[in-house]
Design goal:
The structure is a homodimer.
Chain A (H helix, E strand, L loop, with lengths): L9 H8 L1 H14 L7 H10 L6 H12 L6 H24 L3 E2 L2 E2 L1 H4 L2 H22 L2 H24 L7 H26 L4 H28 L2 H4 L5 H4 L5 H8 L3 H12 L7 H11 L2 H19 L7 H15 L3
Antiparallel strand pairs in A: 1-2
Helix pairs in contact in A: 1-17, 2-5, 3-7, 4-5, 4-9, 4-17, 5-7, 5-9, 8-9, 9-10, 10-16, 13-16, 16-17
């Protein structure tokens, strides 16, 4: 997949294919983010929900339901559920990260306050919960309850693993599953479940979403060191400043000599950061080739995602899901 | 009901009657607050869960299931669910209130940090969600999803209604339903639902829990102005300092003369508070008799709670629920 901006991107193709359903999802989201009593809720929610995100997660639910031949309306409920859970976690993340920018705009906790971000996040989570209850499917509720627990556990793990140079790739993978892959795999799985797909297909949908989510997050962590703030809307070096151990640094720490180790220990473990440290860190990542290694790791997960698609029906959406997996890594030049 | 400390209190009678079930709830809570990957989770949770709270909400679920003749095990799941939701909201409340003390001990956000309080709260909410899914009852999930939404909406409403002298008793009641009564009424209702009680009983259980919760919160708001910090574990005047409009102040504002109104406007709306303001506020509440009025309002809700019990089976637990309603107001001397 090239980076020709004129070509239609896979998520845009998918959005076009699912246009009517996506419109229904947007209508449902707007209806359910309303609050009779507390206008602050739709204000804060709209700031995020209408910030021009790609709506990737709800699209995955609609796409997988379509792929498995679903012809009811609950895919729309589940897609809105997934978007609400995602938005709720973003609101809470921004409080946790003390972040000032998201998708190129000021975060809700800056525009309003931490309190609003915490409570509106809780409200959206409750609204998501109501939407899934409406489907009447205990299996769907089970999947999303488990995903919610994995997400929160991953976030806490990240909090405690941060600043600890002993963080292994295994712990990193658990964090990544929590912060990203768990909702991707729940989104793809519930699409199949609501369609009544056979277990082998539901399993394949889980594997696809899991691998896609992991690839997506690894690329995100890579972009934190080599992205373009204008394109990604992220501040380059945020993870370094927040002393988060992501794959490029974990790999660099593993092969560090004594003076390099002291550098990582000072900047990440002890949090003593000075002018020029980010540039020095970037130099170490390049010298040890860990940015390239990280990109290779992301490509490996993309391959696993595409392999899982082999167990699913031949359908136009299957090709789009495959292209989407390629596109996730194409974000990194 | 007298305040003789030697007499067994109603919640203690109830705890004795439900001792075996409560032990099962405690075991389940300990098992489910564990986290394989993130030890921070049980640390933060234990700080709250084992702080010697009365476990009133889970007891209400066990008691109402018992009252309606339930003989299965899911009442234990639902009681643990209710306690987890309660603990999650306490963790998030402390972030929101920037509170330093809860149940006479430092709050989790002081001992750890706001991040841990937000994320561990999210984790407990997800664990609660898993527990209720295990009961397999969509009706129970529906009740608790709606309660969760009402709780979060009430908290946001409180945030925006705070500092606004135009807050009416009606808005106050909505906030109270959100912050307290919604979980009480869900706790009592699901006990009946899991027992397969007829709709008239489920409705009566809702009404009892709703009225009990409202009485409980009104008394709590009263104690904030006339409580004993050693007995309640609360800092007297917290609501005043946080510029929250609770019933005693709403009533005092309604009858304020020009200079009193200017006092409330300065201290609550504009947040300019000086030495001696709390004492002056207390004087105004006493002069206008709004503390007594507030106590009368709580007693009125207690009467409604007891009236609802008339629709429920004659059973030892019914008497305990009635005594509990009386006891809620007996906390105020």
């Amino acid at each position: 997949m090239g980076l020709d901006e004129a070509a239609t991107k896979p998520h845009e193709q998918m959005a076009a294919h699912l246009a009517a359903k996506m419109e229904a999802v947007n209508t449902l989201i707007r209806a359910r983010m309303a609050s009779r009593h507390a206008p602050r809720i739709p204000q804060v929610t709209a700031h995020l929900v209408e910030a021009g995100g790609k709506r990737l997660r709800p699209m995955l639910t609609l796409a997988t339901a379509d792929l498995c031949g679903y012809d009811g309306d609950f895919d729309v409920h589940l897609a809105a559920t997934v978007e609400f859970i995602h938005t709720a976690t973003l609101l809470h993340d921004d409080v946790v990260d003390e972040s000032g920018q998201r998708r190129g705009r000021p975060t809700a906790n800056l525009l309003w306050d931490n309190k609003s971000s915490v409570l509106v996040g809780d409200y959206l989570f409750a609204r998501a919960f109501q939407l899934m209850v409406e489907t009447g499917s205990i299996r769907v509720l089970d999947i999303l309850a488990n995903a919610s627990a994995t997400i929160a556990e991953g976030e806490v793990l990240q909090l405690t693993a941060a600043q600890d140079l002993a963080t292994t790739e295994e712990i990193y993978l658990q964090v990544v599953r929590g912060k990203t892959a768990a909702l991707f795999s729940a989104a793809t799985q519930v699409g199949g479940v609501i369609a009544g797909a056979p277990e082998t297909q539901v399993k394949a949908l889980f594997d696809y979403g899991d691998a896609l989510g992991i690839a997506f997050q690894i690329v995100d962590d890579l972009l934190d060191y080599q992205g373009d703030a204008r394109a990604t809307g992220k501040n380059v070096g945020d993870d370094f400043r927040e002393r988060k151990l992501t794959l490029p640094v974990i790999r660099a720490v593993a092969v560090a000599n004594a003076s390099e180790r002291e550098f990582w220990s000072r900047t990440i473990e002890r949090g003593v950061q000075r002018e020029g440290d980010l540039e020095h860190a970037l130099g170490l990542l390049k010298d040890h080739g860990t940015l390239d290694q990280t990109r290779a790791e992301a490509l490996d997960w993309v391959a696993r995602a595409k392999a899982a698609l082999g167990h699913l029906p031949n359908h136009p959406v299957r090709r789009m899901l495959s292209d989407l997996a390629d596109y996730v890594v194409a974000r990194v030049n």
